[in-house]
Specification:
- There is one protein chain.
- This protein is an all-alpha fold.
- It has one domain.
- Helix content is about 55%, strand content about 0%.
- It has helices at about 10-20, 25-30, 40-50, 55-65, 65-75, 85-95, 95-110.
- The radius of gyration is 15 Å and the shape is globular.
- The N and C termini lie far apart (about 40 Å).
- InterPro entries: ARM-type_fold, DNA_alkylation.
- This is DNA alkylation repair protein.
- Pfam families: DNA_alkylation.
Length: about 140
């Protein structure tokens, strides 16, 4: 089965589509639980699947600072195509639990070396990542 190329989309098109997926009630519930995203994660995964792997788009989405865009960036990135310093900066900038957990897990599983996740001072797990505090 031949793989098809990722669709050509701009950052503005993706951000506009994310805006249509936002549910204000979901955002409020998530905010009470310490997170800030308002998009249903199933819908976000479906969008990421359609977009496929796009490291440049992931960089642009991450740079927006929006929680939903950053979660999508985690899903469409390819950590092996990022420099260790760039991964370090992204891990440090991830202020939301889902972004932190998603980025560090993808980094741990798919970066050049698992030790590159330790560059930000994050603990290197021996088995799996610990659950977020309070859960």
């Amino acid at each position: 089965m031949a793989r098809t190329a990722a669709p050509e989309v701009t950052l503005d098109e993706v951000v506009a589509e994310l805006a249509t997926l936002v549910d204000p009630r979901m955002r409020e519930v998530n905010r009470r639980h310490g997170d800030d995203h308002g998009v249903n994660l199933t819908a976000l995964r479906a969008l990421a699947k359609r977009l496929r792997t796009q490291p440049e788009l992931a960089r642009e989405l991450w740079a927006t600072g929006d929680a939903d865009a950053r979660l999508l960036a985690v899903l469409v990135c390819r950590p092996k195509q990022f420099e260790v310093d760039e991964l370090d900066a992204m891990l440090r900038a991830a202020r939301l639990p889902k972004c932190t957990a998603g980025w560090s897990t993808r980094c741990w599983r798919r970066a050049r070396t698992p030790r590159s996740c330790g560059c930000a001072g994050w603990p290197i797990p021996t088995r799996s990542w610990p659950a977020p505090a309070g859960r």
